[in-house]
Structures are given as C-alpha cells and as structure tokens.
Amino acid sequence: MKYVVILFVALLSFASCDSSKKVVTEDNTVATTEANDTVRIANEELEYEIIIIEPGFNTWLATAKPRGYYGQTFLEGKNMLFVTEYNRRVRNFQAYDRNLYQQEINYEFHIDYGYEVNYLLYNYFLYFQNRFDQSLIGGRQGGSLGRQ
C-alpha cells in the first residue's frame, strides 16, 4: 500500500449532521464548504494521510489550545498512549462499542509525522473522549466538551 492511512470514522450515522467542512492540505491551505466536518492532511513524501470525519470536531478544535501550546515531543508521547489504547479497544470488540472503535489507527511510533498531524491527532483524542464519554489513558483529559 503506497500510503499509510490514518482514518477516523466515528459514528457514521452522525455524518448527515449539518456542519462546516475544512480540508487542510500538505501546504497548509484550508478550504471550507458546507458539509460534514472533515480534516485531511497529507504528505506525499512521507506517504501518510490523516483523515478525521467527525461532526463537531472543527468547531471543538477552534476552542482547543492553540498550535504551539504543546511541544511536538509531548504530543507524540500522548499520541503513542492514545493510539495504543484505542487500537487495543478496536481488537477487543466484545468489550467495547464497535460503533466507537471501528478501525485501527496505523500510527508508527518511529516516524516523524510533524507537528500538525500530532496536534490534530492529539486534539481528536481529547474530542473523542469528551464527546463519547470515554477514558483512554487514565481519565478524560481536557474537561467538558468544547473546552480544554
């Protein structure tokens, strides 16, 4: 497979909700349309792509800590913990809701995905925990939905 795909599709039944759509490309341009919340980041050189399809995520992201607040090392460390636990729950489908944990996240710990991917992935996990009342690594982080 040419691309390493990181795909978040949580609760497709909510995909019909009306919200804005933002697409972030590798040159950091953002396109906005009236559709589902979608964030996409791709880098052809590193052969990765991250797609987050989640109604309400872009609105929530606007209330998150700004880019640069956390260091990349911090984000990578948290993402390693989040991804490990999330993937464990995907594989343990008898104990966890298949609608929440649909597909494993292919996040390779030795690859430098850069700040933007780690920032969005970290914030998605915070959003996911708050939105769906989950606790991935020792308690929900970031307080109530909409605030970090």
Short descriptors:
disordered C terminus; 148 residues; two-stranded antiparallel ribbon; single chain; alpha+beta; disordered N terminus; 3-stranded mixed beta sheet; 3 helices; 20% strand
Task: Write structural notes for this entry.
It is built from three helices and five strands. It has helices spanning 57-61, 72-91, 115-131; strands at 4-9, 19-24, 30-35, 38-43, 48-53. It has a three-stranded mixed beta sheet with strand order 1-5-4, covered by helices on one side. The longest helix is centred in the middle third of the chain and has 20 residues, at 72-91.
Brief summary of the model shown:
This protein has one domain. 28% of the residues lie in helices and 20% in strands. It has three helices and five strands; from the N terminus they run βββββααα.
- Biggest beta sheet summary: 3 strands, mixed
Unreliable parts: 1-35, 140-148
The topology string of helices and strands comes to EEEEEHHH
Helical content band: 25-40%
Q: What is the total number of structural domains?
A: 1
Q: What is the distance, rounded to the nearest whole angstrom, between the alpha carbons of the first and last residues? A: 36 Å
Q: Strand tally, please?
A: 5
Average pLDDT: 74
What is the topology, as strand order, of the major beta sheet? 1-5-4
What best-fitting shape do the alpha-carbon axes yield?
Answer: globular
Oligomer: single chain
